[in-house]
Amino acid sequence: MFKKIDHLGIAVKSIDEAMKFYTSLGMTVDHIEEVETQKVRVAMINVGGVNIELLEPTSPESPIAKAIEKKGEGLHHIAYSVDDIRAALAKLKADGVPLVNEEPMVGAHNKLIAFVHPKGVNGVLTELSQDQDH
Ligand code: ZN
Fold it and tell me: How many separate domains does the chain show?
């Protein structure tokens, strides 16, 4: 069901500041966009087919703003590509895994995304991500 790691999400106060590390090593930002549903600006850096997703809050109400307030900047979640996000969520729910989102929403890159609660994944906030392009 899981195809590959799609990206690693990192909570940052400022994408511009955070980018300095990556650009100093020659990496370039693929893509920056604002994701309304999550109240974040997102910068994607492709590293060998897996993205580093820098997440900067655009509002104090953003889940990323709250995460930074609680734990500071840092690794926020790991995201896996799946073929069928609804089937994956239904399977996890049937298995009693706690979900943050029972229904997928539209995330960065116009992908369908949903989060699995860290309680169900050894403390790791886990995102499922499905391409809508095909
Ligand atoms: Zn993500």
Answer: 1
